[in-house]
Specification:
It contains eight helices and seven strands; from the N terminus they run H-H-H-E-H-H-E-E-H-E-E-H-H-E-E. The protein is of the alpha+beta class and about 325 residues long.
Length: about 325
C-alpha cells in the first residue's frame, strides 16, 4: 500500500516531466519511421493534444488535493479553537454560576419587599431580567463546554422535524410565517441522537424565524445525498426568505460567541453548538446566504445501511 501511494505521489510531483519525456520518445519513433512530413505533423498534433489532456488532469488533481488540504486545516483549527474555548467557558461558567444564583434569589426577596415602591420595584425587575439573561448565558456556556456524548439510534427524520416544528409553532404564527415541507419518499432511517438533533433543528428554525421580521416562508426539504467515501446521507435543507447574512460575516457564523443578530440575549453559541453536534454524528453542515434573499442551511446525517421500502410523499 505504501509503495502504491509513494508511486502515485511521485507521478503527481513529476508527472509533467515524465509526460514530456514520453512525448519526445514517441515523436522520435514516429519521426524515424515516417516517410513524409504529413505523418510528422499528425504526430506533433496528437502529442500536443495528449500533453494538454494529461497536463489538465494533473492540474485538476493537484487543485483538488490543495482544496482538501485547506478544508482539513480549517477543520483542525476550528476543533482546536472549540476545545480551548470550551475549557475556558467551563471554568468561567462554574465560577459565575453560584454568585449569580445568590443574586437571583436576592432579587426575588427585594421584589416582595418593595411592592409598595413602584420605582424601586422597577429597578429590582430590571436587575432580575439582567440576572436571568446572565444565567441563560452561563447555561449556554456549560452546554457548549460539556459536549454531551451522543446516544445513537436508527429513526426516521421526518417525524422528528414535524415534532420540532410544533415546538416553535407559536413564534411561526406570531410572525405570520408560512411553512413549506417537502419530504422525499423512501428515505433510509438516520443514525442519530434524536434529542440532540432536535436541538439543532430548533436552533435552525429559530434563526430562520428571527431572520424574517415581516413574515415569509420557512422551507424544509429532505432528500438523499452522498458524503465522503460514498457514505450515504439523509439531507435536510432549512431555508428562509429573510434578510440573509452578509458575505463578510458568513465565514464566521460557526465561531463561538459570534452573532449576526442585534437582539438582546443572543449568546452567539447556537450554531457553534449545532455544528459540534453534527460533527459528533459524523455529518456535514453548510450555510449559504445572500443578503436580501434569505439563507439555506444544509445538514447531512449518516443514513442507515438497511434499505427502507418507499412510502408516499409527505
Amino acid at each position: 500500500m505504501t509503495k502504491k501511494i509513494t508511486l502515485r505521489r511521485h507521478i503527481e510531483n513529476n508527472g509533467l516531466i515524465l509526460i514530456a519525456l514520453m512525448m519526445v520518445l514517441i515523436f522520435w519513433v514516429f519521426d524515424t519511421l515516417s516517410s513524409g512530413p504529413f505523418l510528422t505533423r499528425a504526430a506533433i498534433a496528437a502529442l500536443v493534444i495528449i500533453y494538454g489532456i494529461f497536463t489538465q488532469g494533473l492540474i485538476n488533481s493537484r487543485k483538488q488535493a490543495l482544496e482538501e488540504k485547506e478544508r482539513t486545516q480549517q477543520q483542525l483549527i476550528q476543533t482546536e479553537k472549540l476545545a480551548a474555548l470550551g475549557s475556558v467557558a467551563a471554568g468561567v461558567a462554574h465560577e459565575v454560576k453560584n454568585p449569580l444564583a445568590i443574586i437571583v434569589q436576592g432579587v426575588e426577596y427585594l421584589k416582595k419587599a418593595l411592592q409598595d415602591d413602584a420605582l424601586l420595584a422597577d429597578v429590582a425587575a430590571r436587575i432580575e431580567k439582567s440576572a436571568i439573561r446572565a444565567d441563560n448565558i452561563v447555561k449556554a456556556l456549560l452546554g457548549f463546554a460539556r459536549q454531551i456524548a451522543i446516544k445513537t439510534e436508527e429513526a426516521d427524520i421526518a417525524p422528528l422535524i414535524d415534532e420540532t416544528i410544533l415546538l416553535v409553532d407559536h413564534q411561526i404564527n406570531r410572525k405570520h410565517i408560512r411553512v413549506e415541507k417537502q419530504y422525499a419518499s423512501g428515505l433510509p432511517q438516520v443514525v442519530m441522537d434524536s434529542s440532540q438533533i432536535r436541538q439543532v433543528l430548533i436552533n435552525l428554525f429559530m434563526n430562520a424565524i428571527e431572520a424574517m421580521s415581516e413574515g415569509g416562508v420557512l422551507s424544509i426539504r429532505t432528500g438523499p445525498a452522498m458524503g465522503e467515501d460514498s457514505q450515504p446521507l439523509v439531507q435536510v435543507v432549512v431555508s428562509d426568505t429573510g434578510e440573509g447574512i452578509p458575505e463578510d460575516r458568513l465565514q464566521k457564523v460557526f465561531d463561538p460567541f459570534f452573532t449576526t443578530k442585534d437582539k438582546l440575549g443572543n449568546t452567539g453559541l447556537g450554531l457553534s453548538i449545532s455544528k459540534g453536534i453534527i460533527d459528533r454524528h459524523q455529518g456535514t453542515v453548510v450555510i449559504e446566504s445572500e443578503t436580501g434573499r434569505g439563507t439555506f442551511v444544509t445538514i447531512g446525517l449518516p443514513a442507515s445501511r438497511i434499505e427502507k421500502s418507499a412510502g408516499p410523499n409527505q
